[in-house]
Design goal:
It contains six helices and five strands, in the order βαβααβααβαβ. The chain is an alpha/beta fold. It has one domain: Hypothetical Protein Ychn, Chain: A (3-Layer(aba) Sandwich), CATH 3.40.1260.10. It has a five-stranded parallel beta sheet, sandwiched between helices. α1 packs parallel to α3.
Length: about 120
């Protein structure tokens, strides 16, 4: 087993507390070096919630913390394009990529995957 983690945030406006909990864990795992490598992916309904995040909101502040820790979140480009939110996500500093191959590469590298 590796000490590497991919946190996938898929919950959106229907379960914001679940999404924030996952983001909080990813931030703390990175900040306190609980694991060797921590990555963050937004996938599905979470993308729309993130695209609407205001800088002074709890979500906006948590994203700022993630960036300050050197994390580079990625969101699914197919979903963001389909929802016309790619520009908003990129404006927040979130990379948009087709995540199928990215997710598969983490699996092949034996990353632990947590989904919130």
């Amino acid at each position: 087993m590796t000490n590497n983690l991919l946190v996938i945030i898929s919950s959106g406006e229907e379960a914001p507390d679940k999404a924030l909990t996952g983001l909080m864990y990813a931030i703390n795992a990175k900040k306190h070096s609980w694991l060797d490598d921590v990555h963050l992916m937004f996938f599905g309904p979470s993308e729309a919630m993130v695209a609407k995040a205001k800088p002074d909101s709890q979500l906006g502040q948590m994203l700022k913390q993630a960036f300050e820790l050197g994390m580079t979140p990625v969101a699914c480009k197919a979903i963001s394009d389909g929802n016309n939110i790619t520009t908003e996500l990129k404006g927040l500093g979130i990379e948009t990529e087709y995540v199928g191959t990215i997710l598969s590469s983490y699996v092949k590298k034996d990353y632990q995957i947590l989904t919130f």
